Amino acid sequence: MQNRNASVLDDDRIGGLLVKLTIPAFLGMFVITLYNVVDTIFIGHYVGPLGIAGLSIVFPIQMLSMGIGQMMGMGGASLISRLIGADNIPRAEHALGNAYSGTILLSAVVMIVGLSNPDFWLRLMGSSDTILPYAHDYMVIILYGMFFQTFAMSMNMLIRAEGNARVPMIGMIVGAGINIVLDAVFIIPLGMGVQGAALATVIAQFISTIYFLSYHLTGKSFLRLHARNLIIQWQIMRDILAIGISALAMTVAGSVASIFVNRLLVSFGGDLHISAFGIIHRIMMFALMPGMVIGQGLQPILGFNYGARRFDRALRVIKLAVTYATAISTLAFFILYFYPEPFIRVFSNDAGLIEVGIYAAKRVFAVMPVIGLMMVGQIVFQSIGKVVQAIVSSLGRTALFLIPTVLILPHFWGIDGVWLAFPFTDVLTLLLTLWLAIPIWLDFSRRSKLTTAQPEEFNLPPPPVKLG
């Protein structure tokens, strides 16, 4: 049982603490990505390109599920970290309970709406008649198990908010391992196709959910889960949603963008291009991972030190996070831009699909080095409770830039316009992130100099813990 009077986040060794939280976050995010990637690999080899296309059509629904989990998880985690930093443990525990309740309610709403008319939603997302049977079989099972995916995503962030990165890592690794084994069993010897892939995913996420619940219910956590805190308190829920809504907005906008991309790929290319996009999108998830996991490691450290008014530490951890994320995303660029074929072959041996995938990769990953800084910047806004900046930066990549460019460019460049919309979007998002982040950086620098040089002469107000 952890010491209730101390937090692992109260550590001057910022670099070591960032690495300590980032490595488990990387492993956890890696296996979260595997949930979708492994399904696609098995389907590509044992069902075919149309199976991959079916999974690609359903992916916006899975993104919505993850978005709800990220909304409650990131919003709750940001509030919890700042409350722990301000030594307000009872309110942090109330935020934990409200995040639990919000996750349950919202995932139930999506499941009910989705199951009301699956084929309508699939056609709206761009499914053709040939893809529809595969997409339908996969989507129905995924919707029935939506709570487990949403809950696992939320708990992954909420547990990390108290400085424990090991439990989320173990929970996701165990789930991913079970997913891989069940995929192999359900798809190869049992021949269940896309239904087997969906069932394997739901069972694996159920196991992860049980593990995370046991952490809070057995008294091993720093924060306690009390039944009374499950009763939603509007002020706390408002604070959670104010920050978390940016994460949901980002994934919802991503879902909408994926729908537009799918529909335009059908118009300017065909089913094979949707299959290629399904593969590229999975590879892109790994490309985005360095910035995301370093941001996840950054979030509790930055939130804690911001809540504790330690602006010098806040600046140090932001600098380190940006440096690490940019270096790793640059390395990923050289690998995926110049040698994409081995990664595409992991998903399929179809010659036509591989050719289209390589062509798309050369365009989609053209400016990947900027992604690390872009992702870290978004996490900074969420971590310190900057609601407007968090929402604008989260929506920027998809709603402000990707959707307009993917709707406009194909009319000039055909199928190339769909693929080139992605690097155009990344450059514009980087500029937006810098524009929003520079004033915050300058403010942190000013506060850091004041509090470290002559702290007795200044009475700086603490950053707000409550967003209301």
Residue-averaged pLDDT: 80
Please outline the major beta sheet.
none
How much of the residues is beta strand, in percent?
under 5%
Our count of helices gives: 17
User: Got a strand count?
Assistant: 0
Give the overall shape: globular
Which structural category fits the helices and strands? Answer: mainly alpha
Distance between the termini: 33 Å
Q: Could you say how many structural domains there are in total? A: 1
Instruction: List unreliable stretches of 5+ residues.
Output: 1-6, 454-468
Report on this model:
The chain has 468 residues and is mainly α. The chain is built from 17 helices and no strands.
Lay out the secondary structure:
Blueprint: H1 14-46, H2 49-85, H3 89-116, H4 118-124, H5 132-144, H6 146-160, H7 166-187, H8 193-217, H9 234-268, H10 271-307, H11 311-338, H12 341-345, H13 351-364, H14 371-383, H15 387-408, H16 410-413, H17 415-453
Short description:
With 468 residues, the protein is mostly helical.
